[in-house]
Design goal:
12 helices, globular, two-stranded antiparallel sheet, single chain, mainly alpha
Length: 433
């Protein structure tokens, strides 16, 4: 889903291009360098190097440029003079004749390069407004702010400086405990409630994926995907693996017919994206339904799988934060390290060996192998979603869960782990009856 470089021309651009400029230009020659090259706009300004320490110690005096914000109102508070608000009438000039007096700078410092009529900046000058929202108006006045370097999407973009941790840790812990309590409570008190939780998670995950792939101009129909995904999980719960495959095929067929009704434009791209979503979310999640539906100990099978994934994430975070030195996949997930991966495998193997021995009477070495396989699958699932998000140019699938991002940002490792756990438990602890 990567896009071609829109600037892939073989001709030089910007300061690398030397233009053959004609003589008798209507503006002063001081804007040109010897040889006909256009002088850079900031060539005469002094260069200031801002170190990270100096940047953090310098107070953030750049106001927030958002209409309605107090900084915005104060910045444009001074009224303009009649000469500024009422430009002189335009007099038609002959073609090729510059109307300005000789020696006049065509773009003086502080001038507004866009015309302002009636206090509203025309669409196309800067960022366009959102669809359905009125064009923001600029109060009359002049700008008096002092500019300084801005990192990322800092205050000059209307955003506050991001925290050093990057996440709201208290909110993340609270949300994680709430989700864990919901899953464990449904597993051990009302097992059928776990099917409802799973179906809701599948519906939300499909919705997040459909909205995410629209950034790549892939418009997969959401309604048949959500309906088919919920049905897929339900039939897997009641009828087993064969019904899971049948539910996937029905979902793909219904989605294709729904999309064909909208025409053939970009049909291939939309169907490929729909196939990815149908396999990635409801089909893989259907193995969790298969685990839970096992007679007698289905809730325990889901529990050991989730514990192995949690141990893998926790061990990877602890080892990577303290010993991480070698990047595992720098182009996909720069924060993952090989040291963190070893921590994930060791933590999942140790915990799974103990749990499977206590709950299923499985030999510890088979339990350790189960933990290793689940940990590897969880890491691959995390990397897979990171690759999708990087290709789409997004950080999180949504902002549904404070401190976590979207629900798919929490399901990425679980979706790859449950098929692995289902297959290994079918060998190590076969279902009786």
């Amino acid at each position: 889903m990567s896009h071609l470089d829109p600037y892939g021309s073989i001709e030089p651009r910007g300061r690398d291009r030397t233009a053959a400029l004609p003589a008798g230009l209507p503006w002063p020659d001081r804007e040109l360098e010897p040889g006909g090259r256009v002088r850079h706009a900031y060539a005469d300004q002094s260069t200031t190097t801002w170190s990270p320490q100096r940047y953090d110690d310098t107070p953030d005096d750049q106001p927030t440029l958002v209409p309605g914000h107090p900084d915005f109102e104060r910045a444009w508070a001074d009224p303009v003079s009649p000469a500024d608000s009422d430009p002189p009438p335009t007099v038609p000039q002959p073609v090729g004749v510059d109307p300005r007096p000789a020696g006049t700078d065509p773009y003086p410092v502080g001038s507004d390069p866009y015309p302002v009529e009636g206090g509203a900046r025309p669409v196309g000058a800067g960022l366009s407004p959102e669809v359905g929202e009125p064009e923001p108006t600029r109060p009359p006045g002049r700008w008096h702010g002092r500019r300084r370097p801005v990192r990322g999407g800092g205050s000059s973009a209307g955003h506050g400086r991001p925290s050093r941790a990057g996440r709201n840790l208290p909110a993340a812990i609270a949300v994680g405990l709430a989700l864990g309590g919901l899953i464990v409570g449904s597993l051990f008190f009302v097992l059928e409630a776990f099917l409802v939780v799973l179906a809701g998670a599948v519906a939300i995950g499909i919705g997040e994926m459909v909205r995410a792939v629209r950034r790549a101009d892939a418009h997969s129909p959401m309604t048949p995907l959500i309906a088919g995904g919920v049905i897929t999980v339900g039939v897997a719960w009641f009828s087993g693996p064969d019904a899971l495959m049948l539910g996937l095929l029905v979902t793909l067929g219904a989605t294709a017919l729904w999309r064909l009704a909208d025409g053939l434009t970009n049909l291939g791209r939309d169907l490929v994206a729909a196939m990815l979503i149908a396999v990635y979310v409801p089909f893989l999640a259907g193995f969790a339904a298969l685990l839970a539906a096992a007679p007698g100990d289905g809730h325990l099978r889901v529990l050991v799988t989730l514990v192995a994934v949690v141990l893998s994430d926790t061990g990877g975070y602890a080892a990577g934060a303290n010993f991480g030195r070698h990047a595992m996949a720098p182009t996909i997930s720069p924060k993952k390290s090989w040291e963190g991966f070893v921590g994930s495998v060791v933590a999942a193997a140790s915990g799974s060996a103990l749990l499977l021995w206590l709950l299923f009477d499985v030999a510890p070495w088979w339990g350790a192998l189960f933990g290793v396989a689940v940990s590897v699958a969880a890491v691959l699932g995390d990397l897979g979603e990171s690759m999708i998000k990087r290709d789409l140019g997004i950080k999180d699938m949504s902002n549904l869960l404070p401190g976590h991002g979207g629900l798919m940002d929490r399901l990425d490792s679980i979706l790859f782990a449950v098929p692995t756990a289902y297959l290994l438990l079918a060998v190590f602890a076969p279902v009786v009856g």
